[in-house]
Amino acid sequence: MHLPKKDIAATGLVAAGGVIYLLKVTDVVLPGTGGTRAAAAIILAVGFAASAMAVVPGFEDLMHGSKLYLAVASLLGVVALVSGVIAIVTGSSTALAALMAATVVMWLMATIRHAAAAPARWKPRHAR
């Protein structure tokens, strides 16, 4: 399986968000990550960065691809954004969990989609 570099970088960002989430739910406090609000802000930021890195460069393909995939990914993006804002404003642990879950599902969907498309799209020039 060959993943584009953008997906590898996005994986690192989502993993960093996952670490922040795990630190929060296990009550391990690092400077700047101790509260639900701070964790939500960090997870929302890394999720946004991962999405921008892995999705925006291929946005044209996304718009002309599967409408179901686009609808599900868009819905998950809205869930992540709304959950993140709620977690930041209210400090809700439930909203934080929804943010993390939506972020992971979006990452997983995009990574699988890109991995499946990689052989056709990422062949060396001499192999085309």
TrEMBL record:
The chain crosses the membrane at residues 7-26, 38-56, 68-89, 95-116. It comes from Catenulispora subtropica. It comes from the Bacteria. This is Uncharacterized protein. The lineage of its organism: Bacteria, Bacillati, Actinomycetota, Actinomycetes, Catenulisporales. Keywords: Membrane, Transmembrane, Transmembrane helix.
